[in-house]
Amino acid sequence: MDGKELAALLRAQDRILILTHKRPDGDTTGCAAGLCLALRQLGKQAWVLPNEDITPIFAPYLEGLLLPAETEPAFVVSVDIAGRSLFTPAGQVWLERGIDLAIDHHPSYEGFAKESWVEPGRAACGELILELAQALGPMTPEIATPLYVAIATDTGCFAYSNTTPATHRAAALLMETGIDTATLNKRHFRTKSWKRIQLECSLLQELELHDGGRVALAAISLALMDRLSATSADLEDVASLVGQVEGVETAVTIKEQRDGSCKLSVRTSGGLNANKVCALLGGGGHAAASGCMITGSIETAKNTILEAIHTVQAQS
């Protein structure tokens, strides 16, 4: 299905619920907000399912859009959710009942919805929602703002390798509505908390380089988080820091979890397929940016991800 076909499908629906993924980033949040506003502009009843993981930097985009208690939706849409394990606990309830439509841009999408619009060639799911929103009605600054956040954050402010000419055209279209992109860019790309600065200092001091400096591992322990009184909001896009070290082609960020597991983010720039690496460990994502979970300590996670990286390198 494409944007026009989905617009026709959604025009025939009402009481629409939109789901975001665990640890929501700018793309899933911006997509949910933009789609919800576009549907409400048509006179539809539409809401976003509350996400317990959302951080203060993204929560404002969903103000006034969240599903009220004891409200029963009739049509459920997931945005930027590639796999079943990425649904929040509240989202899992709707997954079990059935997702009517999934909109995504990950090659690892698991096909869990009745209808799907998946284009792995898109830099961000926000590009798809923009196309859909245009088919639904006029583009307004209110809709354009979260969609710009979706696209800009998933491309590192248009610096990542997933950025295409179409990405810039999408951003230009959104900017033409008069949104304040300078303020949005400062908020998401040029402002860091003091705790975040301290955290980055600690990460770089303990950074491990492997394979002649081409692979870098950075670990965020619970002890470090507790010492700095840091929260998940202070970790936003911390994975991009490791790849800034000269000579590093594969950057791995390991975040220790309180359940005894570790969450890993793998970013690559030298040809290694991050999606293939993480797929070996039950995860997935994009060729240049993927993630997975590993049960065990940080040291276990380091050894496991290095073995997966070397396995994929040997297969290439």
Secondary structure elements and their pairing?
Layout: H1 3-11, E1 16-19, H2 26-41, E2 46-48, E3 75-79, H3 89-97, E4 101-104, E5 115-118, H4 125-136, H5 141-154, H6 165-175, H7 181-189, H8 194-205, E6 208-210, E7 215-220, H9 222-228, H10 239-242, E8 250-256, E9 261-268, H11 274-279, E10 284-285, E11 289-295, H12 298-315
Helix pairs in contact: 1-4, 2-4, 2-5, 4-5, 5-6, 5-7
Describe the structure.
40% of the residues lie in helices and 17% in strands. The chain is an alpha/beta fold and 316 residues long. It has a six-stranded mixed sheet with strand order 6-7-8-9-11-10. It has a five-stranded parallel sheet with strand order 2-1-3-4-5, with helices on one face. Strand 10 and strand 11 form a beta hairpin. Helix 1 crosses helix 4 and helix 5 packs parallel to helix 7. The two termini are 33 Å apart. The model has no long low-confidence stretch (mean pLDDT 95).
The count of β-strands is: 11
| Helix-strand string | HEHEEHEEHHHHHEEHHEEHEEH
| Class from helix and strand fractions | alpha/beta
Calculate the mean pLDDT score and round it: 95
- Percentage of helical residues? 40-55%
What is the rounded Rg?
A: 19 Å
Euclidean distance between termini CA atoms: 33 Å
